[in-house]
Amino acid sequence: MTEQTTPENLGIGTDEWVAQHEKRLSRRAGLLGIVDFLNQKVSPLVRYLLLAIFAVGFGALVHNLYLLRIAANLAVFLALTLGLNVVMGFAGLLDLGFVAFFGFGAYAYALTSSAQLNQHWPTYLSVPAIVITTAFLGYLVSLPSRRLFGDYLAIVTLFFGQVFIQLIISSDSITFPGHEDSVDITGGSNGIPGLDQFKLFGYTFKTITDYYWLLLVVVALLLVAITRVDRTRVGRAWRTVREDPLASQSMGIKVNNLKMLAFIVGAAIAGLCGTIYAAIQNAVFINGFDMPLLTLIYAAVILGGSGSIPGSILGAFVMSVLPEILRVQNYSEILFLTVLILAVAALSKGWKRFGFNASLVILLGLLVKVISSALSLATTPTSTWAVGPVSKALKYWLLMPANRILWGNIAFVLLIALIANYSIAKERVKFYLLPLIAFIAIFVWEVRLVIEPNTTRQLIIGMMLVVLMIVRPQGFLGKTRVEVL
Amino acid sequence: MSYLGQQLVNGLTLGGVYALIALGYSLVYGVLQILNFAHGDVYMVGAFLGYFVELALGGPTKSFLPVPLMIFIMFAVSMIGTGLLGIIIERFAYRPLRKSSRIAPLISALGVSILLQNAAQLLFSANIRSYDTSSFIPSTLGFSIGDVTVDSVRLTVLILAFVLMFALSRWVNKTQVGRAMRAIAVDRDAAVMMGIDIDKVIRWTFFVSAALAAAAGVMNGLLLRGVSSGMGFVPGLKGFTAAVIGGIGSIPGAMAGGLLLGVVESLTQGYLSTNFSDFYTFLLLIAVMLLRPNGLFGKKAIVKA
Amino acid sequence: MLEIKKLTMQFGALKSISDLDITVNKGEIVSVIGPNGAGKTTLFNVVTGIYKPTEGDVLLDGKSIAGKDPAVVNRLGIARTFQNVRLFLNMSVIENVMAATYAQTKSNIFSSALGLPASRKEEKEVRAKAEELLSFFGTRLTGYRWEQPAYSLSYANRRRLEIARALATNPKVLLLDEPAAGMNPKETQEITEVIGRLRSEKDLTILVIEHDMHVVEGISDRVIALDHGVKIAEGSFDSVATHPDVVEAYLGKGSADRK
């Protein structure tokens, strides 16, 4: 039905012109342009088909347990991301207690399927019961904030997450009235080990491969369900709630109920993920359900594009593969250098200047190396740090001081200051700052960050969130949004 | 009775710390309507700065200055330094987002929070440092009313907290910047049209907010002694809660909310259970939100349609 | 149909509406005029449930709706547009209208997720209804524009879309807040006709706030003039437009005498 009628009066200010305005803007150069292109030109069906083929092929061909475990964790993470995308992306609610529901599901499974309380419920009973209970918990948490703005929901849910952790940690010695001895319910900070495996349709799950296939089915079903909901009545209503709650209400939409529904759906999905995750891990520990995981999921949703389902998939991939890469020094160095070179290339605006900048970086490194040896500064022997292909290549060029922590820290502070300055500097200053920043970044990475993968990962996430909000708040695959304030 | 009195004194001291943090949330919220999630980590930076000043002055044991002067310098340097950090954070993480959607600054704040926490971990390692207050202020120093003892550290903290709160009220009510700040809180567009330099006011707001957090951080260091990169999360959460309980955006509300929270926490820890204190605070928050959704001192917002 | 009885709306010390009585009969088009700050939009906000009146009552078909939730008021049969146009800007044109059928449709999250036949059928009906409502404005909002985001529309089209969206809620009474604001003379002429057709074709009772006197003259069965929250005149367009109090309210004291 959508025929391309040319409007009768194409002039300044008419719809057609305004409508095309966005298209003109979105034809961007560089990497973002490619992302836009992929987003707009490749049909969703083809994308999902490719993804499905890849996922099935992976499960059928790969027998490496380490890789399968990563893939299974990625699938859990993806399901979580999709769940948060419903709450935050569709309905626009800032739910900072999301991982607590995930943790609740995991602990509930552990308590109903282990020797801890001597309960061994069948899977077909425990999992649905837990999903429903988690959904109900979500309902309870959303109650006090139902009449309030997003900010209040944020505080209630954030606090809820904190309380959840405290309750779990402290519930290892509960004294009930009328009983002498205290009871250990949650195992405190020791967690609960030795959980039952899933048993469905008479089949007991034994290996990680079994769970991989289960997760594949779960994720596929979730994707279909969420996509359908997004396109129909409830999904539309959620979007109106996000766009303009007042107008939405005036159109007969019960805003509070819809907000609560989104919240409950998110909690239920998180609870389901929790049960599967607990079964895969064969144990539960409270520190797996803390802020770092929450920020990781948020980063995934936001990176991909809040409200976009393909975005959630992309975000989940990036955010769960990234930590694995960072864990192995060889990979992390390659990744870092690639990103750095791409960034410098993008900021150089032109190959000539890129060449100039690159040679300046190389010169800078040599200069520092020469000066330091002239001053005979103590260095770390190359054999101890140059282990990967990248660092081996760098060893003739990069100065590696003996006191890596001190010099690394100094350079880190300098780097942050320079990057901050760069963002507000004049063009002429930027020209000189860029190679300097690139050099110091390599220095900081090799000297300091490489030996602290966990902190580095968090630093990258933090930086990414801030920069993304400023540069491209809609994320990679999200739509540009127009906001009226 | 004496136990109750003791818990009350402890609660008020703790509440003073919470109130200072809550004020920072409320000030920023009043002007920009954003929740500064990074505030707890700003508080952490303040505590670290205080710690390093203490070390630089030869503390905790071999200070070459008289103890009151040392403490004064710790507060002053930490507050000014952290205040500047607040300005920097606003400049780079919030100002570019002033015209964007409501959720963008929240996410950016989350990013800043992660950045600060991990930068601190990288620079200062994950070890817990200690102010070691007892080695320069004997814990026996202080006075007693009946059975209730108020040791000198608590007294210092309490007095200082109230002095800072009083100074803040004066600043908001009597100075040009404070008045401009209130004007922006009421109607930003109108304030701009009246020729108020909004950037300047926001800079000041962030400076003051961060400086108060820093003071709270140093106080916490003096009281409980431990300083670490992850220390900001829970007090940040509590301060935030206090601000909401008092009515976010309201200055007296933040003060009252902080003190109330401190007392409630202290009493529940004393009489009910140490392990579940956060749970009771959470119940208080829920109760306030159900009974007075706009907080104790908050005004009902008028919807503009 | 719609009765407003002894309505008072007070914000702190400010009385925005005081002791106002208005009756709108079935099938009538009533215009509310008055200078800025007269309380017109406040009146709409009270009727649609956004504000709870300080005193007095609002009756729809004899039943009180004062203070009810806006969503409930809408479901009872009152739909509105907004003075500052509050569309769901990042949703497509047709989605804006489809979303407004929420209250009359049933498919829940499970039936949608499972893609049950009932839910698919409903979805088709909703779309057909939305297309029909959009074609109410001739070719202005049809064809390729359905799938465009609402923010790409011109100002006049946004106002039209807002009316279509309000119609999608199946109202009995329609409140239009300055439907012709920001439109050029040709568009204003069009919207005047549209309002007339709304009554004849959609069987609606309409309450309009409007500043453009040509529109008011063209559509109104009755005109009510407000000033400082008080009704100062009521009657036919001619009688109200020449009423001394109305002239004074618009032009200031003494204007009527000079004339």
Task: Give structural notes.
Chain A has 485 residues and is mainly alpha-helical. Chain A folds into 2 domains: 43-325, ABC transporter involved in vitamin B12 uptake, BtuC; 332-451, no CATH class. Helices cover 70% and strands 3% of the residues of chain A. In chain A, the strands form 4 sheets. In chain A, strands 1-2 form a two-stranded antiparallel ribbon. A two-stranded antiparallel ribbon of chain A has the order 3-4. In chain A, strands 5-8 form a two-stranded antiparallel sheet. In chain A, helix 5 packs antiparallel against helix 6. The longest helix of chain B has 31 residues, at 2-32. The model of chain B has no long low-confidence stretch (mean pLDDT 86). In chain B, helix 1 runs antiparallel to helix 8, helix 2 (39-56) packs antiparallel against helix 3 and helix 3 (67-94) crosses helix 8. Chain B is built from 11 helices and 4 strands; from the N terminus they run H-H-H-H-E-E-E-H-H-H-H-E-H-H-H. In chain B, the strands form 2 sheets. In chain B, strands 1-4 form a two-stranded antiparallel ribbon. Chain B has a two-stranded antiparallel sheet with strand order 2-3. Chain C has 259 residues and is of the alpha/beta class. Chain C starts with a strand and ends with a helix. Chains A and B meet through helix 7, helix 12, helix 18 and helix 20 of A and helix 3, helix 4, helix 9 and helix 11 of B.
How are the SSEs placed, and which strands pair?
The complex is a heterotrimer of chains A (485), B (305) and C (259).
Chain A: H1 15-26, H2 30-41, H3 44-61, H4 65-90, H5 98-112, E1 113-114, E2 119-120, H6 123-142, H7 150-170, E3 174-175, E4 182-183, E5 192-193, E6 199-200, E7 203-204, H8 208-231, H9 233-243, H10 245-250, H11 255-281, E8 283-284, H12 291-304, H13 309-327, H14 329-348, H15 351-374, H16 382-385, H17 389-394, H18 404-424, H19 427-447, H20 453-471
Antiparallel strand pairs in A: 1-2, 3-4, 5-8, 6-7
Helix pairs in contact in A: 4-8, 4-11, 4-12, 4-13, 5-6, 5-7, 5-11, 6-11, 8-9, 9-11, 12-13, 12-20, 13-20, 14-15, 14-19, 15-19, 18-19
Chain B: H1 2-32, H2 39-56, H3 67-94, H4 103-124, E1 129-130, E2 142-145, E3 148-151, H5 152-174, H6 176-186, H7 188-193, H8 198-224, E4 226-227, H9 233-246, H10 251-271, H11 277-291
Antiparallel strand pairs in B: 1-4, 2-3
Helix pairs in contact in B: 1-5, 1-6, 1-8, 1-9, 1-10, 2-3, 2-4, 2-8, 2-9, 3-8, 5-6, 5-8, 6-8, 9-10, 9-11, 10-11
Chain C: E1 2-11, E2 14-24, E3 29-33, H1 40-47, E4 55-60, E5 63-64, H2 70-76, E6 78-80, H3 93-99, H4 109-114, H5 117-134, H6 155-167, E7 173-177, H7 185-202, E8 205-209, H8 213-219, E9 222-227, E10 230-235, H9 237-241, H10 244-251, H11 255-258
Parallel strand pairs in C: 3-8, 3-9, 6-7, 7-8
Antiparallel strand pairs in C: 1-2, 1-4, 4-5, 9-10
